[in-house]
Specification:
Layout (H helix, E strand, L loop, with lengths): L5 E3 L14 E8 L4 E8 L4 E5 L5 H11 L2 E6 L5 H4 L2 H8 L3 E2 L6 H4 L2 H7 L20 E4 L2 E7 L8 E5 L4 E5 L2 E2 L2 E2 L9 H12 L7 E4 L5 E2 H7 L5 H5 L10
Parallel strand pairs: 4-5, 5-6, 10-13
Antiparallel strand pairs: 1-2, 2-3, 3-4, 7-8, 8-9, 9-10, 11-12, 13-14
The protein binds zinc ion (ZN) (2 copies).
Length: 247
Amino acid sequence: MADLTCWLDLLGLLGERPSMSTLELQIIPVTPFQQNCSLLWDKESLEAVLVDPGGEPERILEVVKSLGVTVKEIWLTHGHLDHAGGAKNIREQIGVPVIGPHEADQFWMDTIAESWAKYGHAGMGDDIVPDKYLKDGDTLSLASTEFKVLHTPGHTPGHVVIYNLNLKLAFVGDVLFRGSIGRTDFPKGNHQELLDSITQKLWPLGPDMRFIPGHGPMGTFGQERQDNPFVSDDVVGAATPNSSGVM
Ligand SMILES: [Zn+2]
Ligand SMILES: [Zn+2]
């Protein structure tokens, strides 16, 4: 299944900002849930980060090795097994800090091994305690590029989104998908909170922001505002009047 990996050269997408053109990205779908693990690196320094290495650590590290990049940090969007399950193994193998998600997701990260066993894939991932939790407004960096953090609860209470406005790139985990949104029927999930996270925290980043979701293809916020059946302007507009914050 190695052919499922796909390339996205950011250089070709950043014509008007040549100074930001040194980052490159490879998406590596991992686990039976085909979760989009992202390997993002700076082409000059070859420094890299892994976002949501949810499983299959050996396959992820093979890609890292083949590219000759050096992973400096692991960033997690939320504590679900398919996003965080490979982090402990990779941390132990290459000795880098695991950063994020928000502390409110620790209860998910305490039950990763148990959850994989329940799904019939015992050994697919490990529980993890991150080296550092993230909160709204935090900053992360890869070489000279800074990323900002938003706390976006709803799918899980400690979910975060990591984005860079100049690159027009956001790692949104399971908050938003092309044409769909994250499930909220898990413990501590909250549908209204998820809608608020999307419309009040993501949409202000602009319609041309591209997002990498936890599963499936990339999209842009503008496209979702047009046709996403859960959060398009037509759908949520009526439910969130400007006149009152009380619903
Ligand atoms: Zn999830
Ligand atoms: Zn997921």
